[in-house]
Amino acid sequence: MVPQKINWFKYSSPATFYFLAGKMIPWFAGAAVAFFAWGLYLGFFAAPTDAQQGEAYRIIFLHVPAAWMSMFIYVVMAGWAGLGLVLNTRLSSMMASALAPTGAMFTFLALWSGALWGKPTWGAYWVWDARLTSELILLFLYIGFMSLQATIEDPRRADRAGAVLALVGVVNVPIIYFSVRWWNTLHQGASVSLTQAPAMAAVMLQGMLVMALACWMYSIAVVLARVRCIILERERHSAWVAEFLEGERQ
Predict the structure, then answer these.
(1) How many CB atoms lie within 10 A of CB 249?
(2) For the purposes of burial, counting CB atoms within 10 Å of the CB of 91, is it exposed (0-12), middle (13-18) or buried (19 or more)?
């Protein structure tokens, strides 16, 4: 028996993807809850107290994954926006719009948790450090992307304008990542490196990575739920939406 090939291109249709996303959301949401519970246990109960920073260092289990996600989501958002701009695919632009609020939330969380960590470490909640400043610019880029789309009534024009801004703003992501190498900053270097052995206890690294997985699973679940709402809003005049809503009422 020859296995059937999956036609992945059919899921580029908003109508098809809407129902696929509905099936995936519970799985990713459940994984997020499980990973968050595991990661919080490792970070706040299993991990030892840091010799230099004491208990204050535990905020890294929230701060570092949030910072990773803020940059990763922006790159993915810009990728979807660029795909929609080049290929004029509706679902790609919808995915970019759905990613922006989650990316902005993680960026704000990274800045807020970093401020709480900076007070006992540096003696100040905020300094105009290269890493902090470029991360703040990332938050402004997210807000600018969402604001630009909200101010343009025509969805297609809004998608094109947002895509241009997102693609231009991508240059800020490597600046955030390499800022601690390019400039003399207060911010510490990378917590995890692919080229060097980790400079932290194994349980600390494990807790940080599990929390990053939790944030990843959460992001997928929330973005899928949001894109379903966007699909219904933009496709509200389509026949399939009318049939679906009619079936939901019955």
Answers:
(1) 6
(2) buried
Residue from 106, 102, 97 nearest 176 by CA: 106
Q: Is residue 189 classed as helix, strand or coil in its secondary structure?
A: coil
Q: What angle do CA 147, 149, 154 make, to 5 degrees?
A: 145
Model pLDDT for residues 217-235, shown as the tens digit of each residue = 999 999 999 999 999 888 7
Residues 86, 223, 57, 178, Cα dihedral to 10°:
0
Identify the pLDDT of residue 48.
Answer: 77
Query: Most distant CA pair in the chain: distance in Å?
Result: 68
For the entire predicted model, the pTM comes to 0.87
Residue 56, amino acid: A
Dist CA 93 CA 159 (whole Å): 6
Which regions of the chain are under pLDDT 70? 1-12, 50-51, 54, 56, 121-122, 180-201, 241-250
Residue 230: other Cβ atoms inside 10 A: 19
Please identify which residue in the block is written with the tokens 């949030």.
Answer: 66
Distance CA 93, CA 82 (A): 8
Q: Which of 147, 56, 67, 136 is closest to 106 using CA atoms?
A: 67
Determine the distance from the C-alpha atom of residue 82 to the mean position of all C-alpha atoms in its chain, rounded to a whole number.
17
Angle between helices 130-151 and 172-182 (to 10 degrees): 170
> Phi and psi of 192, rounded to 5°?
-130, 130
What's the confidence (pLDDT) of residue 177?
A: 82
**128-168 pLDDT per residue, tens:** 787 888 899 999 999 999 999 999 989 899 999 999 999 99
| Domain ranges across the chain | 17-47+58-190+197-249
Angle at the Cα of 175 (from 223 to 182), degrees rounded to 5? 150
